Amino acid sequence: MIKNFYAIRETGQCVFHINLCSIELSIEKKKDKNQKDPNLISGFFAAVLTFADHVVGGDNEVHKLSLKNSNFFFIKKGQIHYIIETDLINQKMEEEDFFELLQQLANYIEDYVKDNDVDDSYMQISDDEYLCSQIKDLISQYMRKKILGSFTINGD
Questions:
Q1: pLDDT average, residue stretch 52-70
Q2: Average of pLDDT values for 30-46?
Q3: Average pLDDT over the chain, rounded to an integer
């Protein structure tokens, strides 16, 4: 299952974040207590990714990092690192599927920011309800296609 999607600058500044596991109570607007601060996470990843760039190098190379209960898949395009966080248990997709999805999400956000003249200076695009909805739809459509595509019907 995909838990989070991040877009962060090389400097560690979080540009975009969606928590796909969080429960928000609409009446009180309280967020899940277990939700991690995307700004703290992005700072950590900026340090790890800077180290990885010096060791591995290159834009458009997807990488994977596993920590305790999560896998993190990331790609760098220009000045932005795009990251998907997944759980380790019950993954229904292969690693290559996450890499492909991550590339599609990165391309979508880049095109959206460019086509809509969006200010991506500091998490303002995370407040764009249309973009968040589109990202969630892209993720769910991709996952459905991959998961349902793996089933066969009576000898097919």
A1: 72
A2: 70
A3: 77
pLDDT at position 131, please?
A: 85
Selection from 126, 129, 45, 48 nearest residue 83 by Cα: 45
Report in angstroms the alpha-carbon separations of 80 from 10, 59, 153: 6, 10, 42
> How much is the average pLDDT of 36-44?
78
Q: Give the Cα separation of 63 and 151 in Å (integer).
A: 28
pTM: 0.77
CB distance 70 to 59 below 8 Å: no
Nearest CA to 48 out of 69, 72, 29 is that of: 72
Task: Specify the pLDDT at position 105.
Answer: 92
- Three-state SS string over the chain comes to CEEEEEEEECCCCEEEEEECCCCCECCCCECCCCCCCHHHHHHHHHHHHHHHHHHCCCCCCCEEEEECCEEEEEEEECCEEEEEEEECCCCCCCHHHHHHHHHHHHHHHHHHHHHCCCCCCCCHHHHCHHHHHHHHHHHHHHHHHHHHHCCCCCCC
Mean pLDDT of 3-30: 74
Going along the chain from its start, the domains and CATH numbers come out as 2-149 (3.30.450.70)
